[in-house]
Amino acid sequence: MDVIPLLRSVPLFEGLSDEDLESIARGLNRRSFRAGEIVFHQGDLGDSMYFIQKGDVNIHLPGEDSRRISLKDLGPGEFFGEVALLDGEPRTASALASTSTILLELQRDALERYLEGRPQAAMAILRSMGQRMRRNIALLDSRAAKNVEEEFQKNLSWSEHLADQVAELNGSWKFILLLIVLTALWCAGNSSLALFAPLDPYPYQFFNLALAILVALQGPLIVMSQNRQAKKDRARSETDYQVNLKNEVNIETLLREMAEFRNETQERLERLERPESPEPVARKEARPA
C-alpha cells in the first residue's frame, strides 16, 4: 500500500499537500509484528502513532484472567495511537497484532522536526483537530435521535416530490387499473364502429407513441426515487450509529460514576465497621498500707 494515500486518509493530516505528506512519510519507521505480539500496553508512555500497512490489529482493554475487552479491530489503511502523538500521555488501551502485521510508526520527534521546517502546516493540523472536536462536541451536546423521514421531507424540492409521487403511483394497483381503463376507452373511442373517421385508428399508433413516452419518463423518475431512498437509508444508518455512540458514552459515564460511588460507599462502611481503639487507662500505683 502506498504511504501517501495512507497518510491522506488520516483526518489529522487533512488539508496537507503531497509535498508535506512526502516529508512526513520520510520520517516513518517500518516495524513488523508477529501474530499475537503486543504493539503497546495500556499505560505505556505514548510518543508515536501507527499506520497499518499490512495485517490486522486489535485495540482492547486488558481484563482479569486474560479476558480482554475488545474495542475495535483495525485493518490495512487504518491508524491508531494518534492521541498519544499529540499529548504524550499514557496509552488508554492496548494494541495487539492479530496477524502478521507491518506498521509504519510516526514518532513525535519526527513530527516536531517537520513542523519546525513547515510551521504553516501546523495550522492545517490544528484546523483538522478543531473540526473533529466540534463534531464530537456537537454529537455529545445535541440530541442524536432524529426523524430521518421528517428531515428528508423538509429538504425535498418540488421535482423530488414529483418523482416520489410518480414512483409511488407506478407501484400501485391504481395505476394498473387506470391504464387498463384508459386503454379500453381509447380503443373503443377510436374504433370504426364508434366513429366514421377515428383520430387514431387501429393499430393506434399515436396511443402506442404516448405509452412509449410515458414508459421512457417513468424510468428516470423511478431511479431518482430509488437513489433518494438509498440516501435516506444511509442517513438512517448514520443516525443509528450516532445514537449508539452516544449511548455508549453515557453508559461508560454511568459505569464510572457507579464504580466511584461503590468505592466511596465501601470506604465509608469500612470506617464505620472499624472498631475505635480504646483510650489507655492510667493505672494507679498501689500505696502500701
Brief characterization of the structure:
The chain is 55% helix and 14% strand. It is an alpha+beta fold and 289 residues long.
Annotated CATH homologous superfamily of the largest domain: Jelly Rolls
- Uncertain residue segments: 281-286
Span between termini: 104 Å
Mean pLDDT, all residues: 76
**Quaternary:** single chain
Q: How many structural domains does the protein architecture include? A: 2
Largest sheet, strands/sense/barrel? 4 strands, antiparallel
Strands of the widest sheet, in order across it, are 1-8-3-6
Strand fraction:
5-15%
Structure description:
With 289 residues, the protein is an alpha+beta fold. It folds into 2 domains: 3-141, Jelly Rolls, CATH 2.60.120.10; 148-272. The protein is built from 9 helices and 8 strands. It has helices at residues 3-8, 18-25, 82-87, 108-117, 119-141, 148-154, 158-170, 173-189, 205-273; strands at residues 28-33, 38-40, 48-54, 57-61, 69-74, 79-80, 94-97, 101-107. The strands form 2 sheets. It has a 4-stranded antiparallel beta sheet. A 4-stranded antiparallel beta sheet has the order 2-7-4-5, with no helix packed on it. A hairpin with a 7-residue loop joins strand 4 and strand 5. Helix 4 (108-117) packs across helix 5 and helix 7 crosses helix 9. The longest helix is centred in the C-terminal third of the chain and has 69 residues, at 205-273. It is elongated and about 115 Å long. The termini are far apart. The model is unreliable at 281-286 (pLDDT under 50).
